[in-house]
Amino acid sequence: MGDRDRDWDWHLRTLSSSARDSNVANDPASDSSLLQSVKKLYELCKAENSEDLVARVYPQINKLFQRSVASLSQSRTSIGLLLLAILQFYLDFGEIVLHDADPSLRTFFLSCLSREFADPVVAEATIDFLNANKKKLLTSFPTLLPQFFPLMLKLIAWNGEKLEKSFMKVFPGLMSPGSFLPLFPSLVDLPILVVALEKVEKSAGSLVGNSIASMQKSTAPEMLLALMDEAYTGSTIGDGGGDSESEDSSTIDVADPLFLDLLKDENDGITERHWTSPGMAAALQAAINTPQSDRLKHILRMAPRFLDVYFSIALRDVNNSLVCALIPLLMSRNATIFPDKIYSYEVRKRILEFMLAAFQRSPDFIALLKKPIMDRLGEAYDSPEKTELALQLCWAIGEHGGGGGSHKDEARELFEGLELLLYENLASSRLGLGQESVFSSDSQTSRKSSQSRLLCFVVTAIAKLATNHRELLPRARVSLGKVARSRISDVRVWRRACDYLGLMTEPAISLSVLGPSRPSRGQMQNPGTVKWSDGATKMIAHVPFILLANKKVHPSMIFCFQIFFQEDE
């Protein structure tokens, strides 16, 4: 006990004397003994479980925290570990001394972590701190991590895969009603964030210990001189003279709004990111023309895994209104993704899978999002990415009956959009609005294949939508009849249209084959299925079985059934 008292007094005097030493007072992190004293005093308070001891320690620790924060702008030593140790004291003993840790936590993020997120030691210690206190942070300070999710993304983007496993445990805490929508574009743009951070480091020096905001201010005079030089000599910003052909000519303009938005520390809502801006164009051009850095390679692998967690939480925990609001954002970002072939494929795959899962969970979304869906159908010719999106949307419209039987007006408008897409394709046998002649034969083949695939989905969607909304059947017959009479279409499209026309002459068969895949309201049984539990008393079949002994029939009359029996265990 005597040794413990001596240790207690010695560590307490260390904190007290540091305030009187002018050198240490102006830069507390320069004295490594302060960190050890804070940790030791915390352990003693934890072990003794004495409110009196906590009350004696608190004033000295609180003063140290204030001095440390005040010295950040002049400090040459990392102070993150010291502040984290003090924050741990606040979280565990704040109720005893009536200290609200929320302002202190926000001060740490704004004043310290914004400067030291690139320090690997501070970054790892921060994530460990957040994981150790995850439950308390989520319950007592639920808005903290969602507010600073951009800063946390900068931390993981810069430090790479070595922190991915521990960061994944923190990641769900970044999501809240206020951060759910802005978080998605930030995750998709993580590769651009890495490119921007590397450009800042190259032009302004190390990111460790420097605030990006102060770096932007320090470059303002250089930007002013560059503008004056452009006005008087005609040279452009970043040229660096007539003989400059280096990568510096693609440096991102620190005054570009896109640049400022990428490097922000706090969540300020959804902001539109203009991919055609000079800053973005420079960043993308540099990323394409230069070898990928290790950090960029890491984030290209990590970002899709972050999206997996994001979408999983969205389907499990997020309310329908936010999920519905997210889908138009997914549609708009589907064609604007960092131009890495594997990365763009992985991200688009997850976007489309989530959209289809959301429509499966809530078919009403299709009716509610009628306008953006129709807009995307109108863009089906613009690029392969938009073609694929339109194709998946066509499938969802048909599969879920345009939102269900209660959305007849919306279904009619979606049907008209499908009709327009069909007629535009019939009027031209190629994608690209008559520009096929400028492409190679391989490109022509690819475009024709893409158009045929899209047409197959459109034809199927029209047939399924008319099956769900029978008032559309006459128009569907007209539309499919035009395809059946058209010989410029792909034979697969023509055959599919003929098959659906044949089905539509038999409503019962059409409902079984083209009806919804899930029970509709008021109908407990899926169309085209059998209740095997009732097999002993009744037989149920939506499709009539007709034996045609060696008789030739129209192809539309031929059906193939596979029935799988499973014995009860």
Automatic annotation (TrEMBL):
Lineage of the species this protein comes from: Eukaryota, Viridiplantae, Streptophyta, Embryophyta, Tracheophyta
Species this protein is from: Prunus yedoensis var. nudiflora
Domain AP-5 complex subunit zeta-1 C-terminal TPR: 289-519
Alphabetized InterPro entries for the sequence: AP5Z1_ARM, ARM-type_fold, TPR_AP5Z1_C
Name this polypeptide is given: AP-5 complex subunit zeta-1
Pfam families reported for this sequence: SPG48 (PF14764), TPR_AP5Z1_C (PF25154)
Record domain AP-5 complex subunit zeta-1 ARM repeats: where: 30-154
